[in-house]
Amino acid sequence: MPELRLLSVKQPWASLLVHGTKQLEVRSWQTSYRGPVAIRASGRITKGLVGDMAHDDALYEATVDMWDRSPDPLTYEEIVSAIREAFPVGGVIGLATLTDCRPLTEWAKRKWKTDERHLSFGGRKRPGPGYGLLFEMPVVVPGRPIAAPGMLNLVRWSSRNKFIEQYCRKALRLLQKGAR
Fold it and tell me: Which end of the chain is more exposed for a tag (fewer CB within 10 A), N or C?
């Protein structure tokens, strides 16, 4: 089995990542690892997540069509229930290849032509420097989420799933071609 890492990401960001809508995952740590990563959808839905959805226009637009809108305001419990129905949780839902990791200040200057202090993080200022992990070649794992432990950071993980093994081999070949 080729080397593989596992990253837990909260929903709905995990789904947006494996569908290619989102490419940059922000973390407080950096990594030198480049290669295939299994994206695990965290099972935890917090009030902060629901608040982030309400304050982030792009995220709201990407998720609002996933459940029927009611003429009455939704309660927090109804929103959490809708998120759980619309997005798989508690397992590996897809794969993506980690191709770069840079401080947010570099991403801000290169991609958004601004500096880090103007970036928004769900209406809150992000403490510390922050790093952007760039993911490419996303793919959704077919079927139900694959059981995997929820762990912090980017941890080594192995799976005997043939779909995952094929993805890892392909991603590593493409990374090696790019390095030449």
Answer: C
